[in-house]
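Model: Ready when you are.
Researcher: Fold this.
Model:
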Amino acid sequence: SIISFEEKSRSFARFAGLAVPVVSVFAAVFPVLLFVFCYILYGREKTVSYTGIYEREPPSEHTPAEVSTLLNQFRIPPSAFIATVLNFVCKGYLEMSETVVEKQGLLRTRKVKTLVFTKKKEPKELKPHEQKVYSYILQSMKNGSVSLETLKRKVSLPEFTDFFLEWKDVVLSDLKMKKYLEKKGLTVFTATSIMYSILCLVLLAMQVPTTLFLELMLYSAKTMLTPALITGFVFSISGLIVANTWRTVLSRWTKEGRILELKWRNFKKFISDFTLLREHPPASIVLWDFYMVYAVALGVAEHTIKAMKEIVPDNEIRKARTGPMVYSTTAFNSINSFTSSVHSTSRGGAGGSGGGGFGGGGGGGGGAR
């Protein structure tokens, strides 16, 4: 009957009037609830038995590029490139020396100090990402050597942007990220958030809140549901950006990966702590070279250089393969400037990179291993 139909309509309207505010709140905060759920279920780190305070030796045979990526949310920091080149110097594949070259300015040519890399011997057993950098350096050489100024000029070219983008993928492939990081939480959040964002847009495009308002005379449907869907969409997109920028938030280390990460962070702490280096100095200048390469990769070179100058005699520093960047402020600054140029290029084109420069950072702490 008409009366029965009207009664049912009023009952449904009352129910909808109560339900719409609840649905609106849920629609707005759903992305936040999803983020928290994925973090609790998939993002919290597993308990591991490792309790070391610092590491005096590299915890694994990973390259500087791999280690810096491991500790940088699996993004390739600009310092990884020059650290790879310095690793070739450390191993004797290239020789690094300081020289004077002409640099074209706005009005005239001027002479500047820079570093020159010269080919010494053929490398052995390079990983694919190392081979890619080595080949790039060789192709940039003239008469068996290339200056850092030349490499810096090439950084601004589109070819380098393409190279860095390809190189980034090779580094991640060599690192075997799946072995160290469980990404289920990130995958679940990303997939669900994308579907929810699409749902919000569809509901808004179909004007569902307006339809409910017109047909049921639910003022709350228009005043609450529309802003809620917009808010939910914004939160969802924001969550996607955060989760995929800081990938380890909703992911978690495997046990092997967590231990490796902790050990490398403790090694970074050791090579950047003057007190620890003074108490436990490397036994030879060769080890100092090794430390310096990883210090550049991990962004603590300034601290390691300061310690090396205090601990190692000047004549020994000059024998080191990485010596020029230690005893020459100009050489150090030129490497830092090159790294900043790589950062600007990779940020604009290649993406997925960390901060520029390598002199900052650091880490305190101490104790026995």
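Researcher: Now this one.
Model:
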Amino acid sequence: MRNSIVLLCVFFLGCQSDKKWAFDKKIMLPEETRPLGMALVDEGLWVSDPDNNQVLRIDESGSVLETISNLFRPMHIEANHNKLFIPNFSNDTISVYANGKSESLFVEAEFDAPSGLSVQEGLIAFADFYNHRVLLSKNGDVTQIGAEGRTDGLLFYPTDLKIYGDKIVVADAYNNRVQIFSLDGAFVKVIGWQEEIRVATGLDVFEDLIYVSDYYGNRVLIYDLEGTLINILEGQFNKPTDVLVHSDKMYVANYGENSISIFELF
């Protein structure tokens, strides 16, 4: 039975920690906002709002502190070294925002709807949605991972990704799964097919755990790097599109309404 404390449908399958994720609160955004991607900086939480072609910086009350406008359906954003990287889905460009100014990032490749990116020590990985591939860019050189398909190592509308150590973890959205590749493009593992994910829209990787948003399933699934299911969180989501974990907090973007769900680890 649900109560005001909100006992989530959380299932622990072999978790090594005694801590559990518990729902804390929802941040309500301006009514017209449809949050999709998130990035955390010292000055607040950046939230992409593709339906309104903007990115908002908010505090934990939901107050808007800053707005980047005149974008082109911004998707899964990334913060790195005081820069905000913004994939513009509808005009195939990447914007980089810093110190109140925005400029375009040149990449020696032709995107068809970039939907997500990840930055690590000079290496940038891009989810290239309609081309069904991941692109890696470093020092001007671009390599490709994946191609259109349904079998292991192939992608079908990838939406988000994270570089983690020597691996790339990809939200293979419309294959309803997550895939892991090495940085040289070799297929490593498929995750999530047994849980019948209904569009894997976003993900994060934090302290060797993979957090996946299940858009139509209205849940967040948590796996270890071997693909073992650790947790399933349900009950506080409305078409979740992204997960962001930092320290003992988890943020989940609810595209189906104007809100961000926050969980804390206790």
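Researcher: Key takeaway?
Model: Residues 21-265 form a domain with the Neuraminidase fold (CATH 2.120.10.30).
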